[in-house]
C-alpha cells in the first residue's frame, strides 16, 4: 500500500494540471490513469474526424505564459491527434509522467472515518492511501453502448467512436452502418463516407450542426492572439462560456427581419458555437430560438439535394441548442454522395441487429461494419462506475440514485476530502472545458492549501448547502430551453438514469465569482474540521 497526500484519478487535462499544481504546494501526489497515455477523452476518442469544437487557441491551458506562447496550433479547430500531441508535450514539459501510474483503472475508493484517509483500490491489485482524493475522471469518458437486441449476433466488426482502436480502422471497400448523429457521428460520417464502399446512417434524432469552416490559423491571427493572450484569457474567464469570442450581445427578437437574417448569416459564415452564444435570447425565448432554428433548417434544405433526406435531417422535435450543438465539416453535403443513405429510425425503428446488418419494422439493411456513435454516460458515469464509499460506507452511486448532488459541483456531503473536477452542478460541459478544469484545479488546490495551513483533517460539504445548490442549479436550468430536449445533459440517453439537468447554466463567470467569494469568506457551506 502506497501512502500519498493526494490521489488524483485520471490523467486528462484536469488531472495533469491538478498534479502540476499540487506539486507546487509540496504535496506528494500520484495520478492513476486507466489508459496507457495522458489526454483523457482525447486519448480514447480516435474516430476519423474527431476534433474539438472550441477553437484551439482558446481550448488550451492558460496557466503557463511560456507554454501558450510557444505552442503552435496548426488549425482553427484542433484534430484529436493534435490535441493528444499537445497533452503529451505538456506531460513532458512539466515532467508529469513520473507521478502517473498508467494502465491502471481505479475500481474502488473508501473513506476511513477514524484515520481520515482514503483507500484506493485498482484493477491491477495496486492499492494507495491518501488524505485527499481528487476525481478528474471527465464528463464524457464512459462510452454508452445501446441495448440493441441481437447486437451480440452481429458477424462483422463493431466500433464505438469513444473507444476507437488505437491503430485506426480502414473502411476502404467496406459497407458500413452507423448509428448516432450527435457530435461524434456528425464528425465521423463525412470521413467514413469518403473511404467506405457504402455508408448507411441510422438517425433517430436530427441534430443542429453549424459549419466549422476549419482551416489553418493565419499567422496574423495567431500573432494577434499571442500578443494579447493574457487579456483574452481574462476575457474568457469573465464570459459565459469560458471563451474569448464576443457573446450575448444581440437579442434575436429585438432585430428587424432583415437584421436577423443578416446576423444569422454572419454567425453561420463565422461558424462554430457563436451561432448560439452570440444571441442573448436564443436559449430563453422559444420564439427567438425557433427563428434561429428555422434559419439552420433552411441551410440544410439548401445544401441537401434530396428534399426527402433534407426534411429527415431538419431537427423539429427540440429547440436549437437544447442538445449540444454540433460543429461540422461537410456533414450535410455528405448526404449528396451516391454511396451514402439515410434511414429515419424514428419513423421506422430498429427491431434488431442481425448477423449481417439490422432490421427495422419495414426493411433489412446489410453491412459488414457497425459504428456506434452513441455517446456517453455523461457527467456521472465515470464516478458511479467506481465503488466510492464515503463516511459509514455509504456508496456514491446510491446517494446519487435520484440525481447527482454536489456542492458547487465540487464536493459531496458524506464524502470528506474528496473533490470532483467539473462535477455535476458546475458549468463544465457548457463552458470551455480546459478553462473549467483550470478554474476547478486552482480552487481545489487553494482549499487544500487552506486545510494544510490550518491543520484541518477534514473538509466536507454541508448537507443543506449542497441541497440548496442542487435546487438552484435545477431552478436556473428550468428557466431555459435546455431542459426541453432528451439530452445527455439531463441523463436522458441512459435508460433508468434520473432525469436531472446536470450542468450549471448561469454562466462560467457567475460560477467562478461565486467560488471565489466562498473561498474569500472562509468557505461557508463547508465543514472544516
Ligand atoms: O453522443 P450524443 P456523441 N438507437 O449522445 C443516438 C462531446 N463531443 O458522442 O438523440 C438509436 O450526443 C442518439 O440518438 P438520440 C460533445 O459534448 C465533442 O455524439 O438519443 N440511436 C444520438 O444521435 C457531445 O455532445 C466533440 O435520439 C441511438 C447519438 O446516438 C458529446 O461529446 C466530439 C441509440 C448519440 O449522440 C456526446 O457526443 C464528439 C439507440 N439505441 C463528442 N442510442 C467535440 O467536437 C443513442 N443513439 C469536442
Give the secondary structure arrangement, pairings included.
Elements: E1 2-9, H1 13-24, E2 29-32, H2 41-44, H3 65-70, H4 80-93, E3 100-101, E4 106-112, E5 117-122, E6 127-135, E7 157-160, E8 175-179, H5 183-195, E9 198-203, E10 209-211, H6 219-227, H7 229-237, H8 257-270, H9 274-277, H10 286-303, H11 307-313, E11 326-328, E12 340-344, E13 350-354, E14 357-360, E15 364-366, E16 369-372, H12 381-384, E17 387-389, H13 396-399, E18 418-420, H14 433-453, E19 459-461, H15 463-478, H16 508-520, E20 526-528
The chain binds 3-acetylpyridine adenine dinucleotide (N01).
3-acetylpyridine adenine dinucleotide binds at residues 51-53, 140, 146, 148, 161, 179-185, 187, 204-205, 324, 345, 373-376, 429, 488, 493.
Describe the 3D structure:
With 529 residues, the chain is of the alpha/beta class. Among the domains are: 2-38 and 96-142 and 377-528, FAD/NAD(P)-binding domain, CATH 3.50.50; 145-208 and 321-375, FAD/NAD(P)-binding domain, CATH 3.50.50. Helix content is 32%, strand content 17%. It is built from 16 helices and 20 strands. It has helices at residues 13-24, 41-44, 65-70, 80-93, 183-195, 219-227, 229-237, 257-270, 274-277, 286-303, 307-313, 381-384, 396-399, 433-453, 463-478, 508-520; strands at residues 2-9, 29-32, 100-101, 106-112, 117-122, 127-135, 157-160, 175-179, 198-203, 209-211, 326-328, 340-344, 350-354, 357-360, 364-366, 369-372, 387-389, 418-420, 459-461, 526-528. Strands 1, 2, 3, 4, 5, 6, 17 and 18 form an 8-stranded mixed β-sheet that branches. Strands 7-16-8-9-12 form a 5-stranded parallel β-sheet, covered by helices on one side. Helix 1 runs parallel beside helix 14. The longest helix has 21 residues, at 433-453. It is globular and about 70 Å long. The model has no long low-confidence stretch (mean pLDDT 97). Bound molecules: 3-acetylpyridine adenine dinucleotide. The site of 3-acetylpyridine adenine dinucleotide (N01) has 26 residues, from helix 5. Keywords: FAD, Flavoprotein, Monooxygenase, NADP, Oxidoreductase. InterPro entries: FAD-binding_Monooxygenases, FAD/NAD-bd_sf. Its cofactor is FAD. GO terms for molecular function: monooxygenase activity. It comes from Mesorhizobium qingshengii.
Amino acid at each position: 500500500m502506497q501512502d500519498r497526500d493526494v490521489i488524483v484519478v485520471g490523467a486528462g487535462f484536469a488531472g495533469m494540471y491538478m498534479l502540476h499544481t499540487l506539486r507546487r504546494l509540496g504535496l506528494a501526489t500520484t495520478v492513476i490513469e486507466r489508459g496507457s497515455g495522458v489526454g483523457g477523452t482525447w486519448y480514447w476518442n480516435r474516430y476519423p474526424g474527431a476534433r474539438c469544437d472550441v477553437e484551439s487557441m482558446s481550448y488550451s491551458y492558460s496557466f503557463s505564459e511560456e507554454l501558450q506562447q510557444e505552442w503552435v496550433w496548426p488549425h482553427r479547430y484542433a484534430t484529436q491527434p493534435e490535441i493528444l500531441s499537445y497533452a503529451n508535450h505538456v506531460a513532458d514539459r512539466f515532467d508529469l509522467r513520473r507521478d502517473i501510474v498508467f494502465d491502471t483503472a481505479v475500481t474502488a475508493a473508501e473513506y476511513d472515518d477514524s484515520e481520515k484517509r482514503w483507500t484506493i483500490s485498482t484493477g491491477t491489485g495496486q492499492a494507495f492511501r491518501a488524505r485527499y482524493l481528487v476525481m478528474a475522471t471527465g464528463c464524457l469518458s464512459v462510452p454508452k453502448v445501446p441495448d440493441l437486441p441481437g447486437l451480440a449476433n452481429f458477424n462483422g466488426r463493431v466500433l464505438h467512436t469513444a473507444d476507437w482502436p488505437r491503430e485506426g480502422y480502414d473502411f476502404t471497400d467496406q459497407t458500413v452502418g452507423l448509428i448516432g448523429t450527435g457530435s461524434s457521428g456528425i464528425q465521423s460520417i463525412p470521413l467514413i463516407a469518403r473511404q467506405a464502399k457504402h455508408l448507411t446512417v441510422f438517425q433517430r434524432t436530427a441534430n443542429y450542426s453549424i459549419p466549422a469552416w476549419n482551416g489553418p490559423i493565419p499567422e496574423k491571427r495567431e500573432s494577434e492572439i499571442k500578443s494579447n493572450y493574457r487579456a483574452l484569457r481574462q476575457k474568457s474567464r469573465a464570459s459565459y462560456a469560458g471563451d474569448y469570442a464576443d457573446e450575448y450581445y444581440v437579442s434575436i427578437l429585438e432585430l428587424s427581419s432583415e437584421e436577423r437574417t443578416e446576423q444569422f448569416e454572419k454567425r453561420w459564415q463565422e461558424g462554430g458555437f457563436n451561432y448560439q452564444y452570440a444571441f442573448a435570447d436564443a436559449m430563453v425565448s422559444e420564439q427567438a430560438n425557433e427563428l434561429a432554428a428555422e434559419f439552420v433548417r433552411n441551410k440544410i434544405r439548401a445544401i441537401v439535394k434530396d428534399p426527402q433526406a433534407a426534411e429527415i435531417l431538419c431537427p423539429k422535435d427540440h429547440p436549437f441548442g437544447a442538445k449540444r450543438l454540433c460543429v461540422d465539416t461537410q456533414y450535410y453535403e455528405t448526404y449528396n454522395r451516391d454511396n451514402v443513405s439515410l434511414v429515419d429510425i424514428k419513423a421506422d425503428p430498429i427491431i434488431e441487429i442481425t448477423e449481417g446488418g439490422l432490421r427495422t419494422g419495414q426493411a433489412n439493411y446489410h453491412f459488414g461494419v457497425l459504428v456506434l456513435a452513441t455517446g456517453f454516460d455523461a457527467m456521472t458515469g465515470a464516478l458511479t462506475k467506481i465503488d466510492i464509499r464515503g463516511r459509514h460506507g455509504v456508496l456514491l452511486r446510491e446517494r446519487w440514485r435520484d440525481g447527482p448532488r454536489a456542492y458547487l459541483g465540487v464536493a459531496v456531503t458524506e464524502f470528506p476530502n474528496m473533490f470532483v473536477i467539473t462535477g455535476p452542478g458546475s458549468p463544465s460541459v457548457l463552458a470551455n472545458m480546459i478553462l473549467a478544469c483550470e478554474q476547478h484545479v486552482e480552487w481545489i488546490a487553494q482549499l487544500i492549501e487552506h486545510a494544510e495551513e490550518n491543520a484541518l483533517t477534514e473538509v466536507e460539504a454541508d448537507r443543506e448547502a449542497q441541497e440548496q445548490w442542487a435546487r438552484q442549479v435545477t431552478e436556473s436550468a428550468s428557466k431555459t430551453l435546455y431542459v426541453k430536449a432528451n439530452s445527455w445533459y439531463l441523463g436522458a440517453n441512459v435508460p433508468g438514469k434520473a432525469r436531472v439537468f446536470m450542468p450549471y447554466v448561469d454562466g462560467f463567470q457567475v460560477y467562478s465569482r461565486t467560488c471565489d467569494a466562498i473561498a474569500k469568506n472562509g468557505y461557508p457551506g463547508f465543514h472544516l474540521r
